[in-house]
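Input:
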Amino acid sequence: MSLELNAITKSFGALVANDGISLAVNDGEIHAILGENGAGKSTLMNIVYGLLQPDSGEIKVDGKVVTIHEPSDALAVGIGMVHQHFMLIPVFTVLENIVLGHESTSRVGKLKLSEARERLLKIASDFGFEIDPDALVENLPVGVQQRVEILKALVYEAKVLILDEPTAVLTPQETDELIEVMKRLRAQGTSIIFISHKLREVKAVADRITVIRRGKVVATAEPTATQEELAALMVGRPVNLMPDKNAPKIGDPILVVKNLEILDPSGRTLVSDVNFEVCAGEVLAIAGVQGNGQSELAEAMVNLQSHVRGSISLSGVEIVGKSVHESLHEGIAFVPESRELDGLIGSFSIAENLILDTHREAPYTRGFVLSPAAVAARGAEQAKEFDIRFQSIQDPVSSLSGGNKQKVVVARELSRPVKLLVASQPTRGLDVGSIEFVHERILAERDAGRAVLLFSTELDEVVALADRIAVMYAGKILAIVDSTVSREELGLLMAGVKK
Amino acid sequence: MKKTLKYLSAVAALALVTGVAVAPASHAAKIKACVVLDTGGVDDHSFNAGAWAGAQSTSAIADVSYLPSSSAADFAPNIKKFLDQKCAIIIGVGFSISGEIVKAGKANPGTKFAVVDDSAMDCNADYSVCNAVANVKGLTFSTDQAAFQAGYLAAGYSKTGTVATYGGAPYPTVTIFMDGYAKGVAYYNKAKGKNVKVLGWDPVKKTGTFVGDFSNTSKASQLSQGFEQQGADVIMPVAGGLGGSTAKESQTSGKSVTIWVDTDGYLSAPQYGSVLLTTVAKGLGAAVKSVITDVKKGTFTGSAYVGTLANGGVSISPLHDFASKVPSRLQLEVKMIGRQIASGSLKI
Amino acid sequence: MKKVWTRIAGSALLPFLSFLLAFIISGFFIAFSDATVLKNIGHPGKFITSALSTVGNAYLALFQGSIFDPNLTAGHGFMRGFYPLSETIVTATPLILTGLAVALAFQSGLFNIGAQGQFIFGAIGASYVGFHFTFTPVLHVILAIVAGVLCAAIYGGIVGLLKARTGAHEVIVTIMLNYIAGFFILWILKTTAFLRPRRIDPIAPEVNPSAQLPHLAGENFRLHAGILIALVAAYFVWWVLNRTTVGFQFRAVGANASAAKTAGISVSKVTIWTMSLCGALAGLGGAVHVLGSQYALTADIGGSFGFDAITVALLGRAKPFGTVLAALLFGALRTGGRTMQSNTTTPLDIVLVIQALIVLFIASPTLVRFIFKVKNLKTNAAMTAKGWNG
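Output:
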């Protein structure tokens, strides 16, 4: 089945999210749509799937114009979508999730699952999936859950499958498996629209690549293009994908973590047996698939976790048991994993966000009276140093782009005298330009003799920045390896396989 | 949006203009009688309703109006509102409004005032000296006299030898019923050499059982059930509208009968007629009516009105359905006691 | 300057439109609950004029009873016509303070349902010091107020402490503490310390004249210095929120508690402080109510000041000055309703309908937007939602 989009335009107020986008997906093709966050990829796909209505333009399926008002219309013409965040009910079985929304019942209202079961098993074997229809979704690995989503689309006869950032939640191994699945689907005649901003994957699987920037199609590229070429198209200027890294000048140990154990409020162990040290002038990256205890470990560094045993010492000062405020002022800069939830107060001004940690200190406060002028002055100063772009320093921070928001967080955290920088997923959701900035800043801190503890699920980022890599799996540090380790070995460690 | 607003403001303006134009003319011949209610509200089926009904019955000679009060904070402004409207008589309902009425009475000697259920005296700071105010009339009721009769009747009627009472809150206007009732039972015991017990009030210690307010029906039902379990077969609730809860309990369990208070329950709450032994009636409405009539006739004085068995201000209602179930001898004794109290030969 | 005005107009639009709608709909209630109007229902012409005149009379009385009544000027001079306005202010004064107690909590992301209980404790404290002691006038007023404020601040602080230490939800805790306060005052009024001599019903002695707040406009008006205290309190709340470190922390925790925590702000300290300060404000309301207009403590001294405060704070968008305006509006409706009931036959309860409708519309901006076809209506739905989820 072929899908054609003609001059799709969609605006939200003054913002034109899609500006006359045209593209064609051929029968049995994997068509990648590459673009930065906010380029308009998701808007476009939501239009195709019927979640949004375009202001103008038309959608053609096999040459015929179709109108899609809601997802059921899309399904009816053979368009299925797998969202980045799965739409599955964890406590239901695979089969129940698949029939959800299309339940057929007997006259007394009893679910008739036998037909659906046969159909599911047939399609699974046609496409070479191994799946247990009676397994509870919550017990399945993320990669398998994603396959359930794909199966769900296939069961309802999707001929064009939209995959929205499907690799964001996967381990490298699972990503490889997904790529295999996509190729198998293509072989069976299913067309795939693959949305991503990860150049390596796009190159590995796509037949054609459409690059979108600021709501417009800027180029259609072949997978043979280099990563640098694709990145330049995406950003609109040449990009340095691998930051230049100087040889490390390693000093004394700054952070020493011993026998650390983190429990949740009900007493369940989240993280245990964690031992490592980070020296001045060194980046230690904690790699691992999301959800293996990294978030908790990062928070424990500044005592945001309340049930911690063991020792965290910073230049000989014990951190465990101090308040968050005290921990920060011992010389830890902390860039939290979610800047929206934990890093910034959206309704506060940019200036106020820049002094969230130091608002008690002079010159922002005299006695206990705030000085708005001093706050604004400090904000302007930092904005200049960190190249934060805004209209007014008094605007709410929520009005900023993701990259500028992260700059606010980084600027604030580096404004205190710092011995250790803890950065958790510092480039998640950022555009390539901002990633470049954050990477350079992290390396600059390292080169200035600070210890850096980097938590990242992005393998490319880990390899590019780290001097040593610790891989976390199931709440434990599985191994600490040198940054020259092969990607394959790292991938195996992240999946919990230790040689 | 603009259009809608324009239209709306036009309607509003028209309404205001016509409103001013047709404002009602006053009826010069009638006097203006104004009632400030207590927090119970106009339809409490009890003393607010009774007082308001009394006022309404004078509509031939008076323009009557009332203001409800949601808390004690409303008393003063409500009185003030009626002063502004030049009411000839302002009647406050309930003893809790008494202080504000007395205050207003002293400040406005030209206006007449009355308080239902309080003697409306002007007292000094520590309440050791109290004087009557010339233009303020207190309307009080010796309900203990009729309740005494009811207590005697209850004791004589009881098969189990246990009777009960409870109040809404320990207000003097409530406890006076309970006190008279308990004393009536004691009088019966003394006269007959019996030992009928009274639950819910101790006339010596002046303590008893109370709901805590006049609206908690589930608590009232609980209390009634509790009394039944302790063997009481006559219950007198002194709690305004909550009396219905006890009457309902009497109907469902069949273990007790209820004595109503204030207005004859057989007439005002006929759905409970089958279980109402009698009512300790308080002539609120009649008292209010006579005050308004006095003002109209120019015979109003500030001297206190006390409703008694002698002047008919309090009474015990007919037995209705129970006339045949109560021994005629007991009925006669109750009547005799009433006469003795009225004549002063029997002191409570 | 122009920007400021647009902003004010922007945030006042929703309350204004809600207000307008509430009055229009209540107009129908007034018309259809009137016997004369219903009698004319068969004659469209008569029906409409009688309905309009009934509604018009009711609202005219509402205005006369709350702002200015020309009938009162006769023989007393023009200023006496403003007596209703002074009454509006007297009614609004405690409401401003309880409203601030709820608004401040909203700003810190807390839902303070407990203003009622805190108000009662403020009234108890102020009343006791007011009638039991004798001091020189100014000192006595100050001491009585301080006593009320302290009692209530501790009572509010308990909520903060429980939430900070044990995670108990402040909505549940404050509701329960309201019950406790309600029964506590019933009990304490029967103790010998509080019971008025020679009375057995629950009423305390009047506070001594030295503890009474001075009248502002002579003895003919009940207007007392409480309004000045309330306005200063409103300014104080604004100042604390916007110009002090604690206020910064309050707002930070209210807007995003986890970001505030990550930046080193102690959420539990903020919770305890906020609830104590809220208690203090509500308690100041109770103190001012007793010392300014009631003088004697009664079991129903709390009225519904603490509950109306929630509505007032919502209507005022949890901003100090918005809360002042909302409280004045409620005060006006209350006092005006009295005239409406006594001058026309429209019952006072219609005021509750108006209040409820205003809140209903404020809480459903989409509906207002739909009715008036306005875009970009500023809402505070997020604030209320946060309050509930705590």
